[in-house]
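Annotated sample (chain length 163).
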Amino acid sequence: MIVAVFLLLFAGLVIAPAAPSGEAAVASILDDWHAAAAAADEARYFAHFAPDAVFLGTDATERWTVEEFRRYAHPYFARGKAWSFKAVERHVSFSPDRSVAWFDECLDTPNLGPARGSGVLFRVGGVWKIANYDLSVPIPNALMKEIKQRIEEHGKAKPVASR
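Output written by the structure step:
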């Protein structure tokens, strides 16, 4: 009888569905954040940020606090169409105590083409919040010399530190 109970308990452990992992929880937040932008849901989108978060855009001058980014983005949300980013690959890592997560993701975007996002999240009251997000457009190494020259000729996109 004891063996039968043990076998039933062991079988239950093997076939029981696993609880969502920390990676799944972070992915869910990021996916909802991207979905909120695609749906032009400004309140939902900005609710995913930590209060002192920073968003780095693709232009070297784009380093925004949450409020600065919200002022920039508001007209897009107000017209009912913000932007559409879909993660096609994502990697998530955690601090040893699992209170901080960092990630990088490859994005499919209609306006930018292939893009990349990376960032940091931490727990605020048990909820993951985005503390930093860095959006970039990967440039193939074979094009880098030409792109660098064009940026230098453009002359307007100076890094934040040199303003």
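Annotation: Residues 7 and 27 are 35 Å apart (CA to CA).
Annotation: The chain has one domain: 19-162.
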